[in-house]
What does this fold into?
Amino acid sequence: MNPYKLKIDAIPGRLVPFEGKEFRWLGGTNYLNIGTHPLFQEKLIEGIKKFSQNWGSSRRNNLQISVWEELENVFSQKFNRPAAALSSSGMLAGQTALQLAFQLNPKAKLNTAPKTHPALCGGTDKPFMGTFKAWEATLKNTDIIAIDGTGSPWVEDIHFDFAASLTKENMLLVDESHRMGIQVMEIKTEANLIQSASLSKAFGIPAGIILGEVDAIDHLKSNPFWVGSSPPNPAFCYACLHAQEAYEAQLELLKSSIQLMDAGLKEINKSIKRLAGYPTFCSSSTDLFEYLKGKGFLANQFSYPNVNAPAICRATISSALTKEDLLELIDALSNYHEC
It folds into this structure.
């Protein structure tokens, strides 16, 4: 089928209108549905009143708004990393991390894992086209390694066993946009580990984050690529900073939903790819989208990141769905048979 187009004037929560009906929404990456939580809404209103406009300041401006450093400290503590740097988007966070890696290793070669997001790809560098196992065999004598924390749009369980053999001479760049805030991100390695992520997904704010060692982040914050970029919107940063209880509450709801899915989907059609403990599933099957639609669920169906590739059916359970929704979804997936 051709990818569908849907234009609405509000961010979808549990329901979305489509073709004159309301469907349970399984699209997007709004994992925690944080925007519906009363505490987040309260703090965002406070933030807008406190910071009445976006502040497109230089990162080295004489006047600095304290909320940026305060939120960086929260993220470094939350994810057990020594230091953090905010950026205005996840894409910029990844590209800044890449710039940092080459500044610290001017003559280095970049080795990009299969299916890595464009945020961690250089201008002429492309992700490895083979399997992850074949890619791991190419890591010898590689200085900079780039990889996603988990697959997207494909749901893929990426193993970081290879990282244990890396040394301090290596830099390991990991895009954590689809794990940050919903899964453990710990990676055991001696490499200089830099983790970047979009905060517009689980955290629901227009910003990005870079996590790393203190000396690496200090170097990054003197990099013209970061200094010359605008900081994220202070009102949203304020909301994120002061609504941490809301994130924890929404995460508990999501964990309960995932546990329910894990328990109910012991067996599933082999054309559907999902992982235990993760809220997203996907399929290359051309009929899964229509099947779910017939059951009252609307998933995504489009090509990404290669717009010329076949469309992928990708569905995400968020904190907005009820137990009844999930039980119906489990029943639908349990009885799905690929045509």
